[in-house]
Design brief:
The complex is a heterodimer of chains A (about 110) and B (about 950). Chain A is of the alpha+beta class. In chain A, about 60% of the residues lie in helices and about 15% in strands. Chain A contains four helices and three strands, in the order αβααββα. Classes of the chains: A alpha+beta (about 110), B alpha+beta (about 950).
């Protein structure tokens, strides 16, 4: 379990990014839109944080980036999960669910 | 240096070749991505009806601080670039290693010869470095080893044993009152500890083992920084008289006598009529530090039973220097304390010295080690030269490959690095093999070691040695590889590629360098051989030494006699029964009392003689004293030149120490020094006493040294006989110059008997032990010594140096000859075409052979002259080790020069012969 709140934040954001990319490769703009739609903007994540997360994941080898063309024919960087990233996503989803279940069972009265 | 052209390639080309993106490119990418993001969101917001301005502002707002993100991206790019550089470097290096390995594996003969050559040099170096490390660098293997000194007086008091290695200025143990003063008044030491070995001792409780014991101050182990192997050490109050009933035992004896049992603690041992409780076991392999074994000496470096004693009952003393105090300043303080009036010492001023462990080596032994160290240095240089030669030949044959690489844009630095990687790799493999060779060489060194270097018995390849080996391997690799590497990188590409079609050329620079290396090899090995030759001549000279006695088939045995027996009045009868029992051993022709002529007691005391004008000192500062009986000269073979053997006044009885009270813990006994009323002296001493040649009838006495000897020990003795001089091979002139033979009933201070055999039987030790037991069951035979061993031992330092130097010189010559052979063979090979043309044009075979031989002969002659020059300079270092031969002995120089000349000639002749047999047609066709 991450102890530093920043670590917790980073970890959660990374998890969201990994989940977003689990479907199809997407560029940063599509990613920010996807997270907006899914969260309704409730998490208040600024887009630069998303890009930092993408950089982080790229450096650690969970995500790979490739230049491609966007829908309106502009050069855009497309991110996709690597095999390692998929594994990472599976593990983290499982441990997140476990964490939530444990904390919930404590908080919910009998 | 040319700029890397690949750095300026367009991005698309870089991508095509999967080259990592440049830093600028990565930053630009980050910016482009950011722009796309903002644009896309702006459009998104525009679609909801916002104005362009508001949409842009909203997009920027949801992004956060773009400058902060840019800084973040820049940091990331820099970080990744750094990581990339390290990875690149590692990859390149790995590539170099793989490349070098492939190349070396592709030339197995070259690799094997180079590795073996270097391994010989590195191995010899590591072996001798182990010796240097053990003897000079880390002689005391204890935690506090570098701060421990022995507290000694110089050239005074008494010293036991005489052997070739003892110098007039030998350190001696201080008398107890002086030691006590040092311990109480010094400011140089954190603590002072003492040891007193007792040479004669045995267990009376039914056990017949010969056990040696020693007293030690309770702080001995603490001072050394050592811990008991088991149990505890002595407590500081256990040196007090009422608490002294405790003992420690040696690790060796714990296992030998008690099977290493854990319940040894608390057991009681009886010892010289007192009982002691065992409290602990000394560290494994513990020996009394800084006590050198000398043949015929009585030091026992590893006693089995240790008893506590206060400092004033010990004589072998150690000080633990305070961190900021040097041995030199401690020496000054010890001398000052010794010479203040408050210390009750008679006589002249005392010279004291705080000696480090390495100070115990004599100048001759240090010289010996230095010579060997220099020799292996030369050997390593020869090995390096040989390896460099091989590499040069290889580099020459690979020059086309290198030229092509350079032509294709490889950096010269990269080529140098590649060549160096290859040579360092070779040297490291050689280093590993060298360790194996060093290990074998150390076996030989241990077997050959002279007694003076007895500490070499446990010399090992330690971590410091491994470090040394690794270091010289890498340095060696850089040294010999550097030559070839620079050669490879310094070539002119165009020249090489053009010249390749005319292979007659043998490469000007390369061949000059190779010639120089070969000549240097011959020179160095010649110098080494001259050194070995001089030592060999010394050795034969030593073997011809006129000894003055007959060492063949002569043995001595000394024994332990329990207190009552050797203090008792029945000693004459005891002597008779021992002589009788030994005489009954088959093969014994004569028996006498007395120690071997090679092992008497050296007394450093001025000799006073009665001359025509009264008693006066005759300038004899030390004598060797031997306790004898009437048959001594017959048995030893020392000629009695005039007079007779002494009859009267075996008066050592009067000097016996008083009997200690029964049951009291034993303490060290005072030394004996007393001459009988009649004595025999050797010719040299007789000449000093009476230069007119009439010494018989004159009286002499020893002046008691300060604070030693009980009163009356300086009584007069009359000279009744003159014996021939004796001499050990290689002994210093004054070590055995003056001999005094004094009559004794029991050969004090411990009974020693000498027996002459027709032929010493293999079981002589057991036979003598039994004989001594038969004479009296309480006697225990202690140590058998052979005069032959002593004579051999006197030559051991020379044999040791000669053996090792000879081996190194032999290997050096072998390497040089192989190098020369390879060089001539290579040249002949390169000039095959030329020889073919000459033969085709009708040159006589002899002329062709001479041509081929010329190079080798030139190298040999230059090498010999340079070698002679080096040898003249270098053999001066041998002067202290030579005997009856000058360091510039012309006969040795000429003999070695002839031998080396002949060997180098044949090494050149063998390949040169092939030049004659060149088939011109064949030679011309191969091009």
């Amino acid at each position: 379990m991450p102890r530093d709140p920043k670590d917790l934040l980073h970890g959660t954001l990374d998890l969201l990014v990994l989940r977003a990319l689990a479907g199809a490769p997407m560029h940063g703009f599509a990613l920010s839109k996807w997270i907006d739609q899914r969260t309704g903007g409730d998490l208040g994540i600024v887009d630069s944080a998303l890009y930092k997360a993408l950089n982080r994941l790229e450096d650690s080898g969970d995500v790979q980036a490739e230049w491609g063309l966007s829908d309106n024919n502009r050069r855009a960087k497309f991110y996709s999960l690597t095999a390692r990233g998929r594994r990472q996503l599976r593990d983290e989803v499982a441990s997140w669910k476990h964490y939530v279940a444990v904390v919930t069972s404590v908080l919910e009265p009998g | 240096m040319m700029r890397n052209p690949f750095r300026t390639l367009p991005h698309e080309v870089r991508r095509l070749f999967r080259l990592p993106p440049t830093r600028d490119r990565m930053l630009a990418d980050a910016d482009e991505e950011l722009r796309f993001h903002i644009d896309a969101w702006t459009e998104e917001f525009r679609a909801t009806g916002l104005s362009q301005r508001d949409a842009e502002a909203a997009a920027l707002a949801r992004f956060g601080d773009p400058n902060e993100y840019r800084a973040h991206a820049a940091g990331r790019v820099a970080r990744n670039a750094r990581r990339q550089r390290v990875t690149n470097w590692l990859m390149e290096w790995l590539q170099d290693v793989r490349f070098a390995l492939r190349h070396l594996a592709g030339a197995p003969l070259f690799t094997a010869v180079t590795v073996f050559t270097l391994a010989l040099g590195i191995g010899a170096n590591s072996a001798i470095f182990s010796v240097v490390h053990r003897l000079l660098l880390d002689p005391l293997p204890y935690r506090n080893g570098d701060r421990i000194v022995a507290l000694k007086t110089l050239g005074s008091i008494s010293f036991i044993a005489s052997s070739a290695s003892i110098a007039a200025d030998a350190p001696a143990n201080p008398p107890s009152n002086l030691l006590q003063a040092w311990a109480e008044r010094n400011r140089s030491f954190e603590q002072v500890a003492g040891v007193e070995p007792v040479y004669l001792s045995l267990l009376p409780d039914g056990r017949q083992d010969t056990v040696t014991h020693a007293f030690a101050t309770p702080n001995l182990l603490e001072l050394l920084g050592a811990r008991p192997a088991y149990g505890r050490g002595f407590r500081s109050d256990e040196a007090k008289p009422e608490r002294r009933h405790v003992a420690m035992i040696s690790d060796r004896w714990w296992h030998a006598a008690y099977g290493g049992r854990a319940d040894i603690i608390g057991q009681s041992i009886g010892y010289d009529s007192a009982q002691y409780t065992i409290v602990g076991v000394m560290p494994a392999g513990f020996t009394i530090p800084m006590v050198e074994r000398t043949l015929g000496g009585l030091q026992i470096p590893s006693p089995d039973v240790w008893l506590p004693a206060p400092i004033e009952e010990t004589t072998i003393a150690y000080g633990l220097l305070r961190p900021d105090v040097t041995a030199e300043s401690a020496t000054r303080e010890l001398t000052a304390i010794a010479n203040t009036s408050a210390v009750p010492i008679r006589g002249d001023s005392i010279r004291a010295r705080a000696m480090r462990a390495s100070d115990f080596l004599s100048a001759r032994e240090v010289r010996m080690i230095a010579v060997l160290f220099a020799a292996v240095g030369a050997l390593l240089m020869i090995a390096c030269a040989n390896a460099a030669n091989l590499l040069l030949v290889r580099a020459w044959s690979r020059r086309r490959e290198f030229a092509v690489r350079l032509g294709l844009g490889a950096g010269r630095m990269r080529l140098v690095r590649l060549a160096l990687t290859e040579s360092v790799l070779l040297a490291l493999v050689a280093g590993v093999l060298g360790i194996v060779i060093a290990h074998a060489a150390l076996r030989v060194i241990i077997a050959l070691r002279p007694v003076a270097l007895d500490r070499l018995a446990d010399v090992r390849i330690e971590s410091a040695v491994l470090l040394w080996t690794a270091a010289i391997s890498v340095i060696t690799g850089v040294l010999f590889g550097g030559v070839a590497a620079l050669f490879s990188a310094s070539q002119n590409v165009a020249d090489v590629l053009r010249s390749e079609t005319r292979s007659a050329s043998t490469g000007g620079v390369s061949s000059r360098v190779r010639s120089t290396l070969i000549a240097a090899e011959i020179a160095l090995s010649f110098a080494l051989l001259v050194g070995a030759g001089l030592l060999a001549r010394s050795f034969t000279a030593l073997e011809r030494t006129r000894l003055g006695f007959d060492p063949h088939q002569l043995v001595s045995i000394d024994m332990l006699a329990p207190g009552p027996l050797w203090r008792g009045a029945q000693r004459p009868a005891l002597r008779e029964s021992v002589v009788e029992a030994i005489s009954e051993i088959p093969g014994v022709t004569a028996v006498s009392m007395g120690s071997l002529p090679t092992a008497g007691y050296r007394f450093a005391a001025a000799l006073i003689a009665e001359t025509g004008d009264g008693p006066r000192a005759i300038g004899v500062q030390q004598t060797v004293t031997t306790w004898i009986d009437a048959h001594y000269f017959d048995v030893s073979g020392i000629a009695l030149l005039a007079g007779r053997v002494p009859h009267a006044g075996a008066s050592d009885e009067t000097l016996l120490p008083p009997n200690p009270p029964a049951g009291a813990p034993v303490g060290p006994r005072p030394a004996f020094r007393r001459l009988s009323e009649e004595v025999v002296v050797n010719r040299e001493l007789a000449r000093r006493v009476a230069p007119d040649g009439n010494a018989i009838g004159r009286r002499i006495r020893m002046e008691s040294p300060p604070a030693m000897g009980p009163p009356g020990s300086d009584a007069w003795s009359t000279i009744v006989g003159i014996a021939d001089d004796i001499r050990l091979p290689g002994a210093r002139d004054d070590a055995q110059r003056y001999q005094v033979y004094t009559l004794s009933l029991t050969a004090m201070p411990h009974p020693t008997f000498m027996a002459r055999f027709t032929s010493v039987p293999p079981n002589v030790e057991a036979a003598l032990r039994q004989a001594v037991q038969r004479a009296n069951p309480s006697l225990v035979a202690r140590r058998l010594e052979r005069a032959d061993d002593h004579v051999r031992e006197a030559m051991a330092p020379t044999r040791f140096t000669l053996g090792l130097l000879g081996a190194f010189a032999g290997v050096a010559l072998l390497l040089a000859v192989v190098g020369l052979y390879a060089s001539v063979a290579y040249t002949v090979n390169q000039r095959t075409r030329e020889f073919g043309i000459r033969i085709a044009l009708g040159a006589p075979p002899r002329a062709v052979a001479q041509l081929a031989l010329a190079d080798g002969v030139r190298l040999a002659v230059v090498g010999l002259f340079a070698g002679a020059f080096i040898a003249v300079l270098a053999t001066r270092a041998l002067s202290g080790l030579l005997y009856n031969v000058e360091p510039t002995d012309p006969a040795t120089f000429i003999a070695i020069a002839l031998a080396v000349g002949a060997i180098t000639l044949s090494a050149s002749w063998l390949p040169a012969r092939r030049a004659v047999r060149v088939d011109p047609i064949e030679a011309l066709r191969t091009e």
